[in-house]
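Aggregate trends can hide what the representation actually does to any particular protein. The sequence in question and its C-alpha cells are set out directly beneath this paragraph.
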Amino acid sequence: MRLLSLLCNETHWSVLNRTAGDDGGNWYLNDCFNNLVIVWPIYVLLTILSSLLTGWISGIRHTGVPFDQSLRRLMRFRAAIVCLILLIVSADSLVTTLHSTLTTAVYMSTTVQITAIFIHLFSLISCLNSHYRPKSKSVCIAFDVTVILIIFVNVNQIYTFVVKDLHTYHQLVCYTIVLILWIIYLALNVLSSQKLMTNEDERVLIDRNDQISSLSITCDTIDNQLINEEMVDIISKLTLQWVSPLMKRGIEKKISSHNDLFRLPNDLKSKNVSQKFETIFELNPLSDITTNDNDNNVVIVRQKSRSLIKSLLKCYGFELLGVGFLKFFSDLFSFAGPLLLNRVVQYLESGDHDSYDGFYYSLVLFLCSLLSSMAISLFNFYINNITLKIRSSILTSIYSKIFIVRSNTLDSRFSTGEVLNFASTDTDRVVNFCPSLLQFISLPIQLSVTLYLLYVQLGLAFVTGVVFAIVLIPINRCICNKIAELSTKMMDWKDKRIKLMSEILMGIRVIKMHAWEPLFRQRVIHLREQELKYLKGRKYLDAFCVYFWATTPVLISSLVFGTFVLLNGQLTAPVVFTSLALLSMLIMPLNAFPWVLNGLMESWVSIKRLQKLFDLDPLDLNQHYNHPIADSNFKVQAMGATFASSDSSRKRDISYRFVLGPIDFTLTTGMFVGVIGKVGSGKSQLLTALLGEVQRITGKLGINKSDFDAGVGIVTQEPWIQNTTFMENILFGKPYDAQRYNAVLDACALIDDINTFTDGDLTEIGDRGVTLSGGQKARISLARAVYQNFDIYFIDDPFASVDMHVAKVIYNKCILGLLGDKTKIVCTHHQNYLMKADLILKLDSGQVMASGLPQDIITTGKMKKLSKDEEKPFEEQMNATNIDNEFEFRIKEEEREEGVVKFAVYLTYMRSVGPYLSALVLISIGLMQASKSASDCWLAFWTSNNTDMSSKSSINYLIIFICIAVLNSVLTLIRSFVFAYSGVMAALRLHSSLLKKIFTARIVFFDVTAFGRIINRFSTDVFNIDDNLPFNLNIFLSQLFSLLASIVITVYGLPWIALMIIPLSVPYYYIQRYYRWTSRELKRLSAVSLSPIYTQLDETLQGLITIRAYANINRFMREMYLKLDINNKIQYSTAAVQQWLNLRLQILGAIVSSGVALLAVSLHFWSEQIVDSGLVGLALVYSLSVTGLLNGAVQSFTQTEMEMVSVERVMQYIDNIECEEDNVDNGSIDNDEDNNDNVDNRRVVVDNNWPNNSIVRFSNVSMRYRPDLKRALNKVSFSTKPFEKIGIVGRTGSGKSSLFQVLFRLVNVEEGNITIDGIDISTISLNNLRSKLFIIPQDPFLFSGTIRDNLDPQNKYLDNEIWHSLRECHLESLVLSLGGLSANISERGRDLSCGQRQLLCLVRALLSKTTILCMDEATANIDSITEQLIQQTLTTVFSSATVLFVAHKIESVLNSNRIIVMDSSSIVEMDEPENLLRDESSAFYALYHR
C-alpha cells in the first residue's frame, strides 16, 4: 500500500472508478491501473519491437530485399506521422506537467510513452536509410497488434476525458489528433505489410544473399576497419557505444591511417553521392545567364545554366527536414530546465516537508536533459553526414565540370589558385549552409517560446527586454551585411594571393636564379596586407557580435528586472532564477542569429562564386566535329575549318585575337603529317584545335569516332608529369605488358636514364617532374602516349629538349618504328625529321602558307636524310651507360606529428600574438566573467534579503545591479576588441614567418615537397589561423571561465554538491582524455588527407588536355572518388567521436543539474538544513549551464587543439626547412626583420661594375644533390676567357645543368671552388651574386600580369629600352598585335606558344645587360630561321659578356668560341669547335657527323 501511495497517491487498489451523478455515474478505468497496467506495458512493447527492428535491420544488410519506390514513400509517410505524434504528445505532456500536480505513475507513463515513440521513430529512420527491408512479415504483424493496442489506449483517454468532464480542452484536441494519426499509421503499416515478400523469387534471392553475408563477415575479420553505425543495434546507436572501439584504438595509439577507422557507409561514398547529385542537377531546369557589357552598356544573354543551390536543396532537402526534427525535440526538452527550476524553488520556499513533488521534479529534470542530450547528439552526427554528402557533391561536380570545359575557356576565366579556392574555402562555406539554415529556422521558434514563458513569469515587464532585443536585430543585420561584404572582398584578395603563390612555387627556381625573392615576396605581402585589411574589418565587426553575445544577458536582465521593480513587482527566488534561466535561453538565439546570418551570407557568396564555374559553356564535341566520318580508313578530315579562342567576358585576352585557319587536309590510316612554321605560327594550337580545345568557327571538321573514343595520343610541347613513379607515369592506368613496356622504353631512349635511378622505374617523380631534366620529361610524356597504343597521335616537337643522338633514336625507333603504322601529326622546328612525312603543312600567323610533300616544302640546305643504320650508336662513344642522373630526389611523405599538440606550439602562437597582449586577453576575459557572475550573485543576495520590500530599498538594490551591468558591458567591449586584435596579429606574424621561410628555403626542399602540400599551408592552414583558430579559441576561453564560475557558484550555493562533483571529475577526465587522443590523430589524418585531393586537382588542371585526349576521365574520377572517400571516412569518424563525447559530457551535466535539485530537495524534505532559496536558485541556474559548458569546454578545446594543428603544420616548415646560407635565421617568429644586412657584413663586398672581365673558373668542383646520391659533378675544372662564348653539350644527365646549379649556388659544392674574376663566389652574398648573373631557363617562366611587368619586374627600364629589346628579339610585331606593353598575359603565359615565351625570356636577358649570361636550351622551341637571327643578336649585344650556352642542337653552338663536352658528370673535352671537328677521335666529332 505504501508503494501504491507513493506512485498514485491512493490508499487502495481499484480497476474501475465511477463518476458522481444522479443516474449513478459512468464507469471508467482507474488512472493508476490505466497507467501501470495498460499504458506502461504497451509502450514498453513498442520500445522492445522498435529495438528488435533496428537490430534486425543491421542484420539484413546482405539478407534483405531492396525497397521499391512505393514502399519507400510509405515508410516516409509513416516516419512523418510518428514525428507529428511525438511532437504533439511531448508538447501536451510538457504543458500538463507545468499546470497540474501529477502523480508519479503519470510522470513515469508519460516518460515511457515519449521514449517509446522516439525510439520507434529512430527505428523507422534506420529502416529507411538501410535501403533493405526484412524478409519476414512477423515483425510487421507484431507492430500492427501493438498499434491497435495504442489506439485502444487513446480511445480510453478520450472516453475518460469526456466522462470526467475535464475542462483542459487542449488535451481533448491533442488526444483526438493523436488518435487519428495512429489510425492512419495503422493503415499505412498494413499496406506496407502487404508489399513485403509476396513471391518466392525474393526468398531465393535472400537465401543466396545469406551466403554472401557469411563471406562479408569473414572480410570484416580480415579488414582492420571498424564497423559503422549501419551494423549495430538501436541501443548502441542511441548511446553511440559503437564509437567506443575507435576511442580505444586512439588511447592505445593504434590510429596511424584511414584503414584504422570506421568503414564509410554506402550512402556517404563519394561515387554514390556524386551520381545522385548529378542526376538531380541535370534534371534542374535551365535558366538564362545575363552579363553586363561595360563597353556598350547592354545586357547580354550568354547561355543557359542550372542553379547549384536549387539542386542541393532538391537533393538533400528531405534529409535536412528529417534531421531537423531531432533539433526540434532537443529544443523542446531544453525548455523543461527553467520551468522545472521554477517548481523546485517554489517547493523549497514552501513549508511542506512531506510532499514528494520535489523528487518528481528532479527526476523529470534528469530525464528531459537526457532526452535532449541524445537528440542533439544524434542531430549533430547526422547533420555532419549530410554536410559530407554536400561536400562530396560539390567537389566531384567541380572536378567533373573541369573535364567538360575547354581548357582555354577555363584558363581565361579562372586561375589555378581560384579553382583550388573553390575546392577548399568556398566548398567549406557552402557546406556550412545546412546547419546555418536549420538554425535559421529553429531560432525564431526558440525565441517565441522563450518570450511567452518570460511573459508568464514577469508579465509586461519582459517587453523592455524584447524591445532591446528588437533594437539589436537591425544592428546585427547591418553587422552581418557588412561582414558578408568584407568576406567577399577578402576572398577576392585571398584568391589573388593563392594564385600568386601558385605561380611563385611553379617558378621558384627561376625566381631564385634571378634574385627576385624580395620582389615577389613584397608582392605577396601587398596582397596579404589587402587581405588582412578586410580580415581586420571582419574581426572587429565580429568583436561587436561577441560584445552583444556576452553583455546582452546582463543588460536585458537589468532592463527586465528594473522594469518589474518599477511596476511594483516582487522579486522572488522562483521568479528571478526562472527568468534568468529563460533569459539565458533568450540570449542564445538572439546572439546566434547574426552568426547564423553571417554563415548564410558567406555561403551565399561562395555559392555565387561556384555558380560562375558551373556556368561555363561545356565542350560540345558533337558540335565541334560536325563532319561525321563513315569510312574507317579515314582518321581526321578538315575542310575550310577555322578556329579561334574567344570569350566575350575576356576581350583583352591574348588568345582572343588569334585565328587559326582555314585548314584543309585529310588523314588516312598510317599517314605521317609534319607541321612546320615560325614561332607563334599556330602549330601547337592546331593540335589542340583538332582535339576540341579551341572553338571551331567555320568549316567542317571530323574525326574517326571509334578512334577518338579509344583515345588520341597527344604529346604536348610542355610535358605533363604526374607526381608518381616513373613506371606509373608511362603506364597511365594501362595494364603492365613487359614486352611492350620495354620496347617503349627503348624507343624513347629511357633505358639508360632508368638505370641511373637508385630505384629504377619505381623511382618517385617529384611534383611537375621537378626531379627530371627537360629532356627526360619530354621522353616520359612521349613514352606514355606510345604505350597506350592509340591509332591517332598528335606530337608537338618531341626533339626540342633532347640531344641529337636521342632525337635520332626517337625518330627511328619511335616515330618510324612503334608508331610507323599509326596516323600521326608531328609539329617541329627540326625539319630534317620530317623528310619521310607524307604531307607537310607550313603555317604562318595561323594560316596554311603551303602544303605538299617534304621535298617541295622543306628547304633541305645542309639537312640530311636520316637512316636507321647510319653508324654505331653515340652512347658507345660517350659511355652513356655510366651516366648518373642529375636530379634524383624522392618525394617525402607528408609530415604528421603524433600524440598531443606540443606545448611549444601554443607558446609559438602566444609569441605570435605577443606576450603582453596574451596576458591582457586572459585578464580581460577573467574580469568580464567576474563582473557577470557578480551581477547574478547580487540578484541572489537581493532575493534572499527581501524582507524589507519598501520602494526605496528595491531602488537601491536596483541601482547597484545596474552599475554592475554597466561595468560588465565596458569590460566585455574591451575584451572583445583586444581578442580580435590579437587574432589579427597572430595571423600576420605567422604568415609572414612562413612566407620568409619559403623564399629562403634551399631549392632541394621544393624538389622533394609536392606542390599541393606547400599550397595547402598557404590556403587551408593559413585560413584556419586567420579565422577558425581565433574563433574556436575565443569560444574555449569563454567556456572555460564560465565553467569555472559555474562550479564555484554552484558549490558556494550548495556546498554538499562538491561530494558529487569531485567523483564526477574522474569520468570527466577519462572521457575527455579518450576523446582528445583520438580527435588529435583524426585531425592530423584529415589535414594529410586533404593534400592528395588538392594535388590531384592541380595535376588535372595542368594535364587536362592529355587526360581528356587519352579518354582517361573515368579513371581520374575514380581516383578522386577514392581520395575523397578517405577524407570522408576521417571526417565521418571525427563526427562520431565528437558526438560520443558530447553525449557523455551532457549526461554528466544532467547528473550535476538534477543532483543539485535532488540534494536541495532532500535537505528540505528531511529538514536537515535550512535551504536558502536564493542561493539554491542561483546554484540551479548555473548547474543547468554546466551541461552545455562541460561539453562546450572540451569540444571547444579539442577544436582549438585541432585548429592548432594548422599552427603545428606551419611551424614544421618554419622550424625544419633548411635555409640557404645567407638566410639561416629567416622565418623566426621573433625575428620579423631580415638579417641580410648582418650576413652582408660577413661577405666580400663587390662594386657595381663587378665582374669586369667575367672570367668564370671551376677548380676541381664536385657536387652531389644529397649525401646518399652519386656525384652530379665530379672534379670539374675549366676557365673561361674574358667575354668568351662557351657552348656546352652532352647527353641528358651528363651534368650540364648542374654547372648552372652550382654557379648560382642553388646547390653547394662538395669539393673545389668557383671564382668569378678571381673572387670565390661562396664569399659573396647570394643576392649580389645572382643579381650579377642572368639565366634563360629551358622552361620559360612567365607570370600573370602585363607584358611590361614580365619583361621588367623590378621596373628598372624605360619603355623605349624595352621596345628596343623587343625589336632585337623580333617580337615587336607580336607585342603590338597583343595591345602593347600593357597587354595582359595569363597564368604561366599559357596564351603564348612555348617559343614565344622563350623569346620573351630572352628579352629580359637583353634588358639586363649582364656580363655573364647562362642559356639552358634557350632556343630549343624556336625555328631555325628565328634562331639564326637571335644568334646574331646575342653575338652583337653580348659581345662584352661571357655566355655559357647549353644546347642539344649542334648548330646552336658551332659559332661558340669554345665547346665543352660533358659525360658522366665530368668534362670529356674542351676546345674550339674547329679543332674538335678536325679531330676524328673527339666525342664532339662523333656527335656532329653521326
